[in-house]
Write a structure and sequence with these properties.
The protein is of the alpha+beta class and 432 residues long. The protein folds into 3 domains: 112 residues, Winged helix-like DNA-binding domain superfamily/Winged helix DNA-binding domain (Arc Repressor Mutant, subunit A); 65 residues, no CATH class; 228 residues, no CATH class. The chain is 45% helix and 12% strand. The chain contains 12 helices and 14 strands. Strands 7-11-14 form a 3-stranded mixed sheet. Helix 8 packs across helix 11. The longest helix is centred in the C-terminal third of the chain and has 48 residues. The chain is flat.
Length: 432
């Protein structure tokens, strides 16, 4: 016979935790999860201990500490689940959480049922009320900016489950994504989309005063390709800002300084943009011819060479197709052996693959050359939008300029300093 102890035997006492009825009866708190209701009951239990120990703030409000690790042990759940459960109580108005900072645990101020406003609390997946569930966040905006659906493409196979038992979603590497282009009408042009992706990739750090430098993400080292770091010389009588190679600034001296003052760079870039703006406003067609004729001789030579190579490759492709068809007829008629047929077949098929790849490369190169004129017209159209700019802004620079390469300065014998600065404009690259 087993030693079973039943409830009606009074020799053993139990410890109980009170669970308020209003958590189940009041319409305001019915949407709360059972875990949140249980956690609130244990918070009330701890409140009695805080009252006995005299834990109250200057206003007399009772507070307690309930670390997340203890919530995890209580509910037998993961850390994120414990955080979300505590947030449910916070958004429902049953507790107030006050952060202490410096690694200290948060203070929790429990509230009574009467202090909670009689509002309908709608729980979302993470315990967020409706007014916060639809709030715009930085992560949401960034996700929208990276979504290729807006340029007419469909991307699949981005995520998957860990296994058929574990339904947790995991992100797949971009190499395994399936991208289908032009599946629907685009509402954003690819040029604008690519420009946004470039700006997202270029990290922009805020200064101590909360501002961001207008050249951020554009100024690069001409030798190592790293971004130039922004600095301020405050020891001088007249403080000034400057840029230097960030790879040099790490202390490894893997690159040279590439030092340039901010005011010098600002004045040079502004003068070049003003110069091209005046030309675009005066005669856009003349400027277009100038841009196209800058490398017109090289482009014409390359186009003639590519046209000749394309014609030769297409002619040879037709000859190989004809030879392959005749060879198949000879093999069918028994005029050549199967061994010779297999040997020649492998040879001709290999040549066909090489010719197809070569023809495709030549077509792409010729289309890219034809795109040069279209890109030049786009850039001139952008220049016409900014009539004689008098100051530089981040919007202006990112619209017209792709990157700025800073070369190492060269000092002459007389002490003068010469430095080359290359400006690569958007769509057309370097033009001077």
């Amino acid at each position: 016979m087993t030693n079973t102890i039943y409830i009606h035997q009074p020799e053993k006492a139990f410890s109980f935790t009170r669970l308020p009825n209003f958590l189940f009866e009041a319409p305001t708190f019915k949407p709360l999860s059972n875990e949140a209701k249980v956690l609130y009951a244990f918070i009330l239990r701890r409140t009695e201990l805080s009252r006995k120990n005299g834990w109250a703030d200057d206003c007399g409000r009772i507070y307690l500490y309930y670390p997340i690790c203890e919530v995890v042990d209580l509910l037998h759940c993961g850390r994120q689940k414990a955080v979300n459960t505590l947030r449910e109580l916070q958004y429902a108005g049953l507790v107030e959480i006050q952060k202490q900072g410096c690694g200290k645990p948060n203070r929790i101020f429990p509230k009574s049922y009467e202090a909670v406003p009689n509002t309908d609390f709608k729980k979302s997946g993470s315990g967020t009320p409706e007014e916060k569930a639809y709030a715009w966040t930085i992560a949401q905006v960034k996700s929208i900016l990276k979504e290729e659906t807006y340029i007419g493409h469909s991307v699949h196979n981005k995520q998957t489950n860990i296994s058929f038992k574990n339904k947790k979603k995991v992100r797949k590497p971009k190499e395994e994504w399936y991208r289908v282009e032009n599946t629907h009408e685009a509402i954003i042009s690819e040029d604008v989309f690519r420009q946004v992706q470039e700006q997202i990739c270029n990290r922009r750090r805020r200064q101590k005063n909360g501002t961001t430098q207008i050249f951020s993400g554009l100024v690069k080292c001409a030798d190592c390709g790293w971004s130039l770091a922004y600095g301020m010389n405050s020891q001088n009588k007249n403080p000034y800002a400057h840029y230097h190679c960030s790879k040099y600034g790490q202390g490894l001296h893997q690159c040279s300084m590439h030092y340039i003052r901010y005011d010098v760079l600002y004045a040079y870039v502004l003068s070049r943009l003003q110069y091209w703006s005046v030309l675009a406003q005066q005669d856009g067609d003349k400027l277009l011819k100038r841009l196209l004729n800058a490398s017109d001789k090289e482009r014409n030579t390359a186009r003639k060479r590519q046209t000749a190579e394309l014609k030769k490759a297409e002619k040879r492709k037709a000859e190989v197709d004809t030879l392959f068809a005749k060879m198949y007829e000879d093999w069918s008629a028994g005029r050549i052996t199967e061994y010779n047929f297999n040997m020649l077949s492998e040879k001709y098929q290999g040549e066909q693959r090489e010719l197809d790849a070569k023809i495709e490369r030549l077509h792409e190169a010729m289309e890219a050359a034809a795109q040069t004129a279209v890109d030049a017209e786009k850039w001139i159209g952008l220049m016409k939008q900014y009539v004689n700019p008098t100051e530089l802004t981040a919007e202006l620079l990112n619209t017209l300029i792709e990157k700025i390469l800073i070369h190492e300065a060269v000092k002459s014998e007389d002490g003068s300093r010469e430095q080359e600065v290359e400006i690569f404009y958007r769509f057309i690259g370097k033009i001077e």
